[in-house]
Amino acid sequence: MEIIIGYIIGFIVLVLFFVSIFKSVSSRIKSEKRDMNQQITDLKKRLDNIEEKSQ
């Protein structure tokens, strides 16, 4: 009986571990995407400024 309880607890811990890894990776991807969008926006503004100066 103790072996079954141990397996159940181990399974629960393993599931929680994978859930935490998934959440961590997901939040990192969102953060990187937000940073990349900001960089693209900044580059577009710089390009617009350069085009205005050249005209």
Question: Helicity range of the residues?
Answer: over 70%
Strand content: under 5%
Kindly give the count of domains. Answer: 1
**How many helix segments?**
1
The major sheet is characterized as:
none
Mean pLDDT: 95
Q: Are there runs of 5+ residues with pLDDT below 50, and where?
A: none
H/E element order:
H
Distance between the termini: 82 Å
Shape: rod-shaped
* Derived structural class: mainly alpha
> What's the alpha carbon Rg, rounded to whole Å?
24 Å
Oligomer: single chain
Describe this structure in words.
This protein is mainly α and 55 residues long. It has one domain. It is rod-shaped and about 80 Å long.
